[in-house]
Amino acid sequence: MSDLLVRPARPEEYERIGELRVRAYIEGGVIEPDLPYVQHLREVAEQAKTADVLVATDAEDKVVGTVVVAQPPSPEAEIAKPGELEFRMLATDPEAKGRGVGQTLVDAVLEQARERGLKRVVLSVADHNDRAIRLYQRLGFRRLPERDWSPLPGVDLIGYVLDMTAEAAAGGSHGQ
């Protein structure tokens, strides 16, 4: 993971980020290519107006992963309440799988929460996205069933939360 750097996305990268997300979600079996959410994954410029779009880059500054970080009242904060940070659309370039990109991005999100003095980090994940669920559980996130929801019929999202005070008591950031 040492060759990865997390930084804000640049406008000239937005199109590539959108395509990376679409490819990661479709190839990873998270969504079907005909779902309307595919277009939302491509709307990076719009999301960057009200949320932070972060990227993970490799030693050559190639974007290998991305995540959106938001707080209410941003429309990108779908389940977060005041005092919480939410992250969404975590995606790793399929060619970079197994390099710790997802964990590196989550660690960056947790660092943002600490810097902002927020008490909780929340997320929604597709109920069948086993790889992501394993990552979140390994990093200390726990189920938050009261935030489960379905944006479309047949698309079930389950909520997870990490209490930052518990995370801090457990020794801080994971993997750093």
Model description:
The chain is α+β, with helices and mostly antiparallel strands and 176 residues long. The chain has one domain: 3-Layer(aba) Sandwich (Aminopeptidase). It has helices at residues 14-27, 37-42, 44-47, 101-116, 130-138, 164-169; strands spanning 5-8, 52-57, 63-70, 84-92, 120-126, 142-143, 149-152, 155-163. Strand 2 and strand 3 (63-70) form a beta hairpin. The protein starts with a strand and ends in a 7-residue tail after the last helix. The mean pLDDT is 92.
Can you tag this structure with a few keywords?
8 strands, Aminopeptidase, alpha+beta, 176 residues, 31% helix
> Which architecture name does CATH use?
3-Layer(aba) Sandwich
> Helical residue percent?
25-40%
Report the average pLDDT across residues. Answer: 92
CATH topology: Aminopeptidase
| Backbone CA Rg | 15 Å
> Which ranges are low-confidence, i.e. pLDDT below 50, for 5 or more consecutive residues?
none
Spatial separation of the terminal alpha carbons: 9 Å
Task: Look at the structure and give the CATH class.
Answer: Alpha Beta
Quick structural overview:
The chain contains six helices and eight strands.
What is the strand and helix layout of this fold?
Blueprint: E1 5-8, H1 14-27, H2 37-42, H3 44-47, E2 52-57, E3 63-70, E4 84-92, H4 101-116, E5 120-126, H5 130-138, E6 142-143, E7 149-152, E8 155-163, H6 164-169
Parallel strand pairs: 4-5
Antiparallel strand pairs: 1-2, 2-3, 3-4, 5-8, 6-8, 7-8
